[in-house]
Structures are given as C-alpha cells and as structure tokens.
Design brief:
single chain, about 120 residues, alpha+beta, two-stranded antiparallel ribbon, 3 helices, signal, Lipoprotein
C-alpha cells in the first residue's frame, strides 16, 4: 500500500514538472527556448513567448537566430522548384541543385545563384 501511495505521489509530481507553458490559443510554448532566447537577446520573456506563438500560428518553427534573437523558420511556397537565379524563388535558388530552397531563413553557409550561372556563397548566423 505504501509503495502504491509513493508511486502515485511521484507520478503526480512528475506530471506537474513540465518545460512547456500552458497552451494559449492551442499553442504550447517551449520554456527552454523562451529562457535561452530571453537571456541571449535581452528581450522579455513575454516578447519571446509572443514571437514563438506568432511563428507557430503562421505555420513556422521557432529557431535561434543570429545574436540570440528569436527567428521563425517557415517553408517556402516553391520548395524544390527548378530555378536559375534567386529571383525565381520565394527565398533563394540553391546553386548545388538549381532548386528553390525548402525553408527560410537559411542558416549557415549556402551556395546560391544571385544571377544565372554565377554562384555565390552566403553565410547567415
């Protein structure tokens, strides 16, 4: 009996420990993300939570942007479409595959086609 009570108490405590805030408008906010971005960017927790919810509501995925700023990765409208230059795409034309990037913003270093046949490498933090 004692084991059953202790198990129930432990389960209750574990269920109360959650790294996500309560859903607002059906969106659960990752508090680890909020803590990190708030600390790194200097933005308030409320500002970061709002940016997180707006991103998810718009179909995006909250990511860490440059200098600890919150960023929102979204799928592009023309992912995988053949292209010859950036202006053919919603985001960038990837030089390696001559297709439109699947998401924006891009991160890291990527070879793109600012104009036909002229690859350039961009690096985004």
């Amino acid at each position: 009996m004692r084991v059953l009570i202790l198990s129930a108490l432990t389960l209750g405590l574990l269920m109360g420990c959650n790294s996500s805030s309560e859903p607002a408008n059906g969106i659960t906010v990752d508090q680890g993300y909020v803590d990190t971005v708030s600390r790194e960017s200097g933005l308030s927790r409320e500002e970061v939570e709002t940016a997180y919810r707006d991103c998810v509501k718009g179909g995006g995925k909250p990511i860490f942007g440059g200098f600890g700023q919150p960023a929102c990765e979204t799928p592009t409208l023309d992912a995988g479409k053949s292209c010859t230059q950036n202006s053919d795409c919603d985001s960038f034309c990837l030089a390696e595959t001559a297709t439109c990037a699947p998401k924006k913003p891009l991160s890291g270093c990527t070879s793109v086609l600012p104009s036909p046949g002229r690859p350039a490498t961009i690096c985004v933090d």
